[in-house]
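Supplementary Methods, section 5.1.

A reviewer requested that the exact input to the structure prediction be made available. We therefore reproduce it here, unchanged from the version used in the analyses.
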Amino acid sequence: MDFKKYITNIIAGVTELDEENISSLLEVPPDEKMGDYAFPCFTLAKVMRKAPPLIAKELSEKIGSDDVVDRTEAVGGYLNFFLNRASFIASVVGAAREAGEAWGASDMGNGKTVLVEYSSPNIAKPFHIGHLFSTAVGNSLARIYKRLGYNVVSLNHLGDWGTQFGKLICAYYRWGDKEVIEKDPINEILKVYVKFHEEAEKDPALEDEARGYFKRLEEGDAEVTALWQYFRDVSLPEFKRIYDMLGVSFDSYNGEAFYSDKMDEVVEMLDAKGLLTESDGARVVDLSDLNIPPCIILKSDGATIYATRDIAAALYRHRTYNFYKNIYVVGTPQSLHFRQIFEVMKRAGWEWSEGCEFVGFGLVKFPGKAMSTRRGDVVFLEDVLNEAVEKTRAIVEENDNVRDNKDEVARKIGVGAILYTFLKNSREKDIIFSWDSMLDFEGESGPYCQYGYARGRSILRRAEGIDYSDPDFSLAVSDEAYSLVKQINSFSDAVKDAADKNEPFYVNRYVTNLVKSFNKFYNSNPIMKEGTDAETQKARLAIVDAATVVIRAALGLLGIETVETM
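The structure derived from this sequence is encoded token-by-token as follows.
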């Protein structure tokens, strides 16, 4: 049942306000002692020509109570509604258990396609810890939009084009050894890439040589194209291994190179619209009226740039998917770039570009360490994931509760701990990497939430054989039970908030609070303890069952797997 809508209808029946207005005014009091919903009567003061406290009192007398609303109270200018707790618990727990994994789902996105571009590493370079931010946020958003009924297409816009490949090709011809590279492709390719930048500092002419190689690549030179293809081919299996560890998959790996034959059309279209001007030999779109730099479409040597390729990609996606939203999960330093290309598309008259959204995220910081692939100072993501699993395995080994599948349990907890950390705060906030807080089983962490689920499943295993399919929930009405079920009921709101703001941390915060409420419930309400009344036990078991279903579903939206024992 939609309790907010139910109360909205009640108020509409005793006032002249429309339901939309009432719904926007309804509040959830900060303290449960003040009720479950509160309606401010100040809006009615002018219409009814009475003081808000008198209006609240009058409405309270008219409404009375029923099976859903236990009572109303007039407090100051507010009309507070107190739900019938037994009825509320029965309705929510019953619906959650029936819905199962679909609890909190919606069909609001039916018929609409949402594209989520995320991860997007550069080929021939290692997958470092910074890439996880985009991967974690994007994967979570894709799951969240799917839960709301949207047709979601996950895109991995690989960095497989640009002048960096001219540098890499140059470096390979000068210092590469294919036999050595075959043994450890990504790391060995990184070494020659780093060497290029070291040598270019001594001999700047190398930069011109690299630009020449990229020009040959753009022109389709067979030899350099074959080498570029080799770099791409050896990179994808490396990336896929990381994605498998994270439980991430993509519908498309079309990178920048895919759009290399689609950029001439973009240039022609922008030129036909009269948007292109010349600046120092380059062709640009002037954006000085917005007080931002011009958007370069063609460089002075005629080569394309990121902007050209991103505009071509957006046009292709519109034609291919007719998207409702085209979301780019990219680091916040790229915000100006996306502001520029979105403005260019708007000036081109492409109304569909309004659906393009930039979703920025912060930096990953290691105390005392800066990352740069040019210098070879990187923190490999695979190393971090493996270390998380190893550290978790050491903890699991000391736990007698986990007897089987210790490797699998360690993997799920270790990887889950990292994902939780990257999604626990607003995505634009920088992350300070800390193993202690990440693997804390007591504080706000992935292991803490996974343990809450495992604890609930343990209780249900102990209750095997007890039929709690149709309990009397009036026997389980406690403050802790009510608070927990209110949390269960608010799952769909958290999912919608996360989608509205493209912020997975709303779901992260939700599941953390849900587990906290669950812990208070089972610590204060005996379930399997000897002497517990049998009928009361059944009602509490049903609440535990519903809670575990929702914890699992919420963690799933973050890409975090659950474990049955911890």
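The mean pLDDT is 91. These observations are discussed further in the main text.
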